[in-house]
Write a structure and sequence with these properties.
The protein has 287 residues and is α/β, with parallel strands linked by helices. It has 11 helices and 8 strands. The protein folds into 2 domains: 200 residues, HUPs (Rossmann fold); 53 residues, no CATH class. Helix 5 crosses helix 9 and helix 10 crosses helix 11.
Length: 287
């Protein structure tokens, strides 16, 4: 147990990404699985503090009998969180991943527009991001594919898609769901190796024994690439910190990305304090 608030970092990162305004309506895409259940609960807490409204949007693919169980779980989650649930059913068709993805996003955009929500949040996490990047790599992708899913992108006119959990490992979300006693269901099709993503997931499971933080590492690389290509302020701050360390004769060897990024965030936000980078090297922010 990490203190009185073991999920403080998770809660704060979602709160920062959502930052709802009073009276705003947010939509959380909820499949019924543990990842989207965690997202819904985290967003519900943000909305309660800000005086905003959360709507849970569920898209029923109708491809298996347990799809109705998923819908029931989402309704139960909505009741537990005090959030309205909006449901859309996809038209009959093939089980092709591309079709289902496109029609699911179209349905979410329609539900968001009907609810007056400018943003739809999804529960994609670090493992989803790692799989997306590696699938693109196996296809022979360029920098865009290696950058993975974007944290924010347009979904429809006046509606943005937001993925606040791309740096979070699914084990932490599962622990949060258990701690909060949230209802959820498991998708049996995740074991179907006929889907390319599931086949890759099975292969990666063998590697995680030797590389336990494989997913977070790949997701982090994708985030770094996106930020560097976009020339974002935090990427420039990290570069400036590396240059400053080199000038001071400290170098960046054995300075983890997480510590360097935390120092850049502190500079970005103007937070004073001392930041340990590695043994014998600290950054002091003052003034």
């Amino acid at each position: 147990m990490r203190g009185a608030r073991p999920f403080a970092a998770l809660e704060e990162s979602v709160a920062e990404a959502a930052a709802p305004e009073r009276g705003e309506v947010l939509v959380a895409a909820v499949s019924g699985g543990p990842d989207s259940a965690a997202l819904a609960a985290l967003l519900a807490a943000c909305c309660a503090r800000a005086g905003a409204t959360l709507v849970l949007a569920h898209v029923n693919h109708g491809l298996r009998r347990s799809a109705w169980q998923d819908e029931a779980v989402v309704l139960a989650l909505g009741a537990a969180l005090g959030a309205r649930v909006a449901v859309a059913a996809l038209p009959p068709g093939t089980a092709a991943e591309e079709r289902l993805r496109d029609e699911r996003y179209a349905a979410l955009a329609t539900l968001a527009t009907a609810s007056g929500a400018p943003r739809v949040f999804t529960g994609h996490h670090a493992r989803d991001q790692a799989e997306t990047v590696l699938l693109a790599l196996l296809r022979g992708t360029g920098p865009d594919g290696l950058a993975g899913m974007r944290p924010v992108r347009p979904l429809a006119d006046g509606v943005a898609l937001v993925r606040p959990l791309l740096g979070v490992e699914p084990e932490e979300l599962a622990a949060y769901v258990a701690a909060e006693h949230l209802p959820y269901a498991l998708d049996p099709t995740n074991a179907d190796l006929g889907y390319r993503r599931n086949a890759l997931r099975s292969a990666l499971a063998e590697l995680r024994g030797s590389f336990p933080h494989l997913d977070a590492a790949v997701a982090r690389c994708a985030a770094i690439l996106r930020e560097e290509r976009a020339g974002e302020p935090r990427a420039r701050l990290r570069s400036e910190l590396r240059a400053a360390l080199a000038t001071a004769g400290a170098g960046t060897r054995d300075v983890s990305f997480e510590r360097l990024d935390a120092a850049a965030r502190a500079l970005e936000r103007g937070r004073e304090g001392r930041h340990f980078l590695r043994r014998g090297v600290e950054l002091v922010v003052e003034g």
